[in-house]
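Hi support team,

I submitted a single chain yesterday and got back a structure, but I'm not sure I'm reading the token output correctly. Could someone confirm the output below corresponds to the sequence I sent? I've pasted both exactly as they appear in my results page.

Thanks,
R.
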Amino acid sequence: MDRRYIFPPLTLPFFIFLFTLPFLFFSFMFAIVSVGRALGFSALQILLILYASLIGSLINIPVKEFEHPVKVIREYSFFGIRYRIPVIHSQRTVLAVNVGGAVIPVIVALYLLISSLLPHIQIFLLAFFIVTAASYAFAKVIKGVGIIIPAFLPPLFASIASLIAVLQSPQNFSVMPKIAFTSGVFGVLFGADILNMRKVIRMGAPIVSIGGAGVFDGIFLTGFMSAMLALLFM
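Hi R., thanks for writing in. Yes, this is the structure output for that exact sequence:
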């Protein structure tokens, strides 16, 4: 048969993507289930938490409203001479909490802390303070954007902090993923969001959401990735 009349039905990149997609999906699901089991959840429970975070990321619950002065420079022209006059007016900022990005991860972290980590509270506090300090040091407040922090740093700090903390008591090595998840969630929440909240509010944004409004916000991802890295260190 003449090869000139043989045409591939799909372009090569799409053909590769089509065959690698199932592998990526099952790898992702395996990682989720593995992390869930390390945290003490069944496969169904961790999937419900995942989907609840996905849906909850669309919901922001208003908590408090702030009113603060904002200075605006207005320019006027009179007979060719331009005048810059500062004008002070009040602006309201609504402080909200994102359900998927903050509420659900905090509930899961509190559950792990109360159900499993109270006997290891000193180890948790050590990891928590390390992640909080690192998150505060690397978080930046940018006008028009909000609070940003390199995505890979909080999980890395949380997993390393949990390893350092657990090494103080090697017999507690099995709780390392739970220490990583809880310290990652609370560390980023306090170090990146809460400690920088005044700076964000002063920028005059109409709404400030703890936990963000995006799907799988940094707080959720930090907890999940921290536990995953902790599993690799075990």
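A quick pointer for reading it: The chain is about 55% helix and 20% strand. Let us know if anything else looks off.

Best,
Support desk
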